[in-house]
Amino acid sequence: MATMPATHGHSEVCCNIPPIVSSGYVPKGTYEQLGGMKTYVTGPADATKGLVSIFDIFGYFDQTLQGADILATSNEHQKHKIFIPDWFKGNPVPTEWYPPDTEEKQEKLGEWFGNNDPHGVAAALPEYVKALQTANPSIKSWGVLGYCWGGKVVEHVTSASSNPFTVAAAAHPALIDPTGAEKISVLYILLASGEDPADTVKEFESKLKVPHHVETFADQVHGWMAARGDLSNPRVKEEYARGYKTLLDFFGKQWQ
């Protein structure tokens, strides 16, 4: 794989990501049963760092799986193994429910969110990580990444005394709450979209008490690094890649 030059202030080593596939992506990982859940697993068997990825409400989308593979394979100096558990048990939000422009869609979404509370997932994560640790004894440190709905899970779990993670990342997190920032106890990176409320993002950053990086991708939609990322659009594809480079750079510098 050719080495890409350093761009946007990121080190060269963290820019060696594979070419982004716009459509028809073939995931590099496999699905396993871990902690009682179907889990997408990707990355080297001898990895010393494990990252639990919490997808958005649409579940296993190619863009999210490709992102996991990027994080697992692009930094030769830090070996990451990525785990994406199916918290929705095969029942993500169908894309046809969006936009929720009918009463029926709104009712279905309301019921779905009622059955998939971020607090519940956050509370279950410590035990899930214990199961992962048992199955992957080479891993010495754990991180968590959440997209949209998953970003709220990240906020909750890293604010709890039972938090098992050393580093946390949120890509276009849902329901950004500045009061929650004060309780986050680990290294933290937040990548916001242009659709996320700028004042709220700024206030959230001001209340973080841990080493952090907060950046807004101003011309991107909420969800561009996951299911809503239209990778056939050259600009989205470029910023999708830069988003993952930014995560890798932060992990490389801060996650020791």
Automatic annotation (TrEMBL):
Q: Lineage from the top down?
A: Eukaryota, Fungi, Dikarya, Ascomycota, Pezizomycotina
The Dienelactone hydrolase domain, residue ranges: 37-253
Q: Which domain of life is it from?
A: Eukaryota
Q: Name one GO molecular function term.
A: hydrolase activity
Where does the UniProt annotation place the signal sequence?
A: none
Kindly give the InterPro entries that the UniProt entry links to this protein.
Answer: AB_hydrolase_fold (IPR029058), Dienelactn_hydro (IPR002925)
The record's annotation in SUPFAM superfamilies points to: alpha/beta-Hydrolases (SSF53474)
Q: Could you tell me what this protein is called?
A: Dienelactone hydrolase domain-containing protein
